[in-house]
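Morning. Coffee machine broken again, so started the prediction first thing and wrote up yesterday's gels while waiting. Chain of 92 residues, entered below exactly as on the submission form.
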Amino acid sequence: MSDARVERYAELLLDTCLGVERGWQVMVWSTPLARPLLEEVMKQLAERGAYPLLRLTFSGRPLARTPSMAAACTARRDLRAGNDRGTDAAPV
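Came back before lunch.
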């Protein structure tokens, strides 16, 4: 049985925060503790025609932002602002 709060939170993340579109590759990075949300996010990504890239961490430490993740976030902001710099970074 699915929790409506988890469904709404996944919608908020994918629609409002990220604006996920068909064909995007979206990195989903978390711990197994967030399993209900992870499952819902993966389901909704598939429904939108996006490709989830699931990464689980078991260490319990905060996830560090890698340079490639920072570049992808910058590219996404540029695309949303209408500035296409021609970067190869995929939207996140």
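The two ends are 29 Å apart (CA to CA). Going to sketch it on the whiteboard this afternoon.
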